[in-house]
Amino acid sequence: MELFANLAHGFAVAFSPMNLLMCLIGALVGTLVGVLPGIGTIATVAMLLPITFGLPPVGALIMLAGIYYGAQYGGSTTSILVNIPGEATSVVTALDGFQMAKQGRAGPALAIAAIGSFFAGCVATVLIAVLGAPLTKLALAFGPAEYFSLMVLGLIFAVVLAKGSVLKAIAMIVFGLLLSMVGSDIETGASRMAFNIPELADGLGFATVAMGVFGFAEIIRNLDAGSEMNRDLVQQKITGLMPTRKDIADSTPAILRGTVLGSILGILPGGGAVIASFAAYTLEKKLAKNPSRFGRGAIEGVAAPESANNAAAQTSFIPLLTLGIPPNAVMALMVGAMTIHGIVPGPQVMQKQPDLVWGMIASMWIGNLMLIIINLPLVGIWVRLLRVPYRLMFPSIVIFCSIGIYSVNNAPVDVILAGVFGLVGYWLIKHDFEPAPLLLGMVLGPLMEENLRRALLISRGDWSVFISRPLSAVLLAIAGGLLLLAVLPALRAKRDEVFVESES
Amino acid sequence: MMSVRSLAGACLATVASLCVVAAPVSAQNYPTRTITMIVPFAAGGPTDVISRIVTANMAQTLGQSIVIENVVGAGGTTATTRAARAANDGYTLITGHMGTHAASVPLYPKLAYHPEKDFEPVALLAGTPILILARKDFPPKDLKEFVAYVKANAEKVNAAHAGVGSVSHASCELLNSILDVKPVGVPFNGTGPAMNALVAGQVDYMCDQIVNAVPQINAGTIKAYAIATPERNPSLPDVPTTAEAGLPAYQAQAWNAIFAPKGTPPSVIATLSAAATKALDDEAVRKRLLELGSVIPAPANRTPEALATLVRSEIAKWTPVLKPAT
Description:
The complex is a heterodimer of chains A (about 500) and B (about 325).
Chain A: H1 2-14, H2 17-35, H3 41-48, H4 57-82, H5 91-102, H6 106-141, H7 144-161, H8 166-180, E1 183-184, E2 191-192, H9 206-223, H10 227-237, H11 245-266, H12 272-287, H13 300-315, H14 317-322, H15 329-340, H16 349-352, H17 354-385, H18 390-409, H19 412-430, H20 435-458, H21 465-468, H22 470-503
Helix pairs in contact in A: 1-17, 2-4, 2-17, 3-4, 3-15, 4-5, 4-6, 4-13, 4-15, 4-17, 5-6, 5-13, 6-11, 6-13, 6-17, 7-8, 7-12, 7-20, 7-22, 8-20, 9-18, 9-19, 9-20, 11-12, 11-13, 12-13, 18-19
Chain B: H1 2-20, E1 35-39, H2 46-62, E2 66-70, H3 77-85, E3 92-97, H4 99-107, E4 119-135, H5 143-152, E5 158-161, H6 167-179, E6 184-187, H7 191-199, E7 205-209, H8 210-219, E8 222-227, H9 242-245, E9 253-261, H10 266-281, H11 283-291, H12 299-302, H13 304-322
Parallel strand pairs in B: 1-2, 1-3, 5-6, 5-7
Antiparallel strand pairs in B: 3-9, 4-7, 4-8, 4-9
Helix pairs in contact in B: 1-2, 2-10, 4-13
Pfam families (chain B): TctC (PF03401)
Protein name (chain B): Tripartite-type tricarboxylate transporter receptor subunit TctC
Family (chain B): Belongs to the UPF0065 (bug) family.
């Protein structure tokens, strides 16, 4: 009963003309930010934070929240159209999304991403309202040992999602882990592999590497002799804009599973949303009757991760609203926004600021509705963009990417580094190494290392903590099982090859 | 409404200043254009919030807008290096703090600037006091018991901090050196995750700035033993000072102050210093700063001379504490 009263209060707050406008602005800006490659949500929220000082606190936070989840909608657009993931959470979307675009099915891919996001957003909003407080326990149950095991599981996902050689996928993960070690050592502050370049003291940025190995490398490859033909083919092949009935039927279970996974993993501070998108993709690939379709334009490969990352984006508000502790960098900025308005979030924020909390929860649902209304008609416009001749398209992509990368830290070095990674990425593509596991390794690497060291510091070097803590043990067991599943077919395939050869 | 009026005020002030001094000499009619204030930390953090509150008022006094530029990285030293190399015309300033202008000296042996040699002190703004915090079921009941417990169980206790070079790291090292203990320091990536671990009971104690801790203490999810300032704080009236609780040697606060690049004209420094001290006397500014749990320095402690003394004494204070840590 109390819940309905609270929600009614929330909707009353959110439906005020001012807050509706704030929600719409947030959703629009978020979509734009998501679409522009490189310009991430953290940078945008940081840039827009000062603008919110003049606004009432509830409106300001509704707008900032809108930017955050709006970017999850927009983030898939460049992944699908031009193979450039704007956010860590949309890396996997690029795998099948871009393949669909190449087959002339960019429309259905974009539409299903928006529909999946909408469904996941609605479910996750209800979840925050109903189960927010009990779910908080999950965030507190995860100590360093559990995080480490979760990260191990995450890296196994990366092996599973590779469509080619398992060995090459592992090589890419290790390369990603190595790249993630650039920067300052968390325990001693000592500089590692930074070569006395001050800009490397905090490590390589995700956007820098992602733009390089995905965006720039893809452009170089397209400019290769012969690829121009392919591009033109893509432009002629564009068929329907909306998903067919079969697409919807294929995607529905994927959206449902992605939503569940995303909702759970989103509550965990740190890399929750990233792991959620990878986990959702892996799950779909494992459950599929014909896993070989994945990486070649399977619509479930777009629907599942997009639902998962949007669900996770919403549920990541739970620790902020119930504990007052920000689970990620964007949430930390939201805390900053609240602080500036004289609201210091804490465990009692739900009781003390019902307007803010319930207004924000209600606005999330309204925002999701606005986003789907904004995004579905945009599909047609985005797809038409693909008809732009490539000689005009690629310089614009390069410029947008460069501006985006520069805007993250206002550092010219980042743009140069992205160029270097473009060359590295081109070499990798030419030798059939996939960049997605590399990026996952890079994102999860620091979390894994830090939590390993924290867990061992607290246990005084006793490795058994990873199996003596039940949650951690379960996660490691799942990781072991998945690895076995991934390696077995490879071993079997080898044996088959041997047989084939001996027969001939 | 408020902002429109203040904007109008700023415009009027601009017009007025242009009328009064229409001379071409730069330092005389300073400021004639927008001032950039570099904040070496992310938007929304304590240093950023304090800078924004104070500079908004200073901008009205000076008749020019002050734009905040958040430059993050390497514990604030990236931004401070940039500020040290900026033109010394008074149009690029930095809000430095305990970390960038004192603790960085022992922490970063290859620091590209020196807080005393490369900067002109302008004004001390506000500080955020440090609290000694522990998980809610940590056995000691008060600070005396805490000291005895940590000394007796130095092998077993874990102290969390927000990363090497952070305020919570430096202030925890200071506490440990006073207690003469070396507990295991568990590094986290920022205050949020460290606080999460403390609330969850994964670590035993930590030292942190008041802003983040007040709501958790009030909710009873963590406990506070003492506040490391000479006086109790209005936002936590029940938390004793370290002096009251029996550890007077432990005094720490994350102070924030405005600095200008070396060689900025003295008249410019004087103008800025006056504007800053006027801002700190403004009722609205004081109210907002106190809400954050900040400590506002007395007028005599805000001057460039007092700030120079503070920087010197802080470098001397942190150097022996942080040197062995690196």
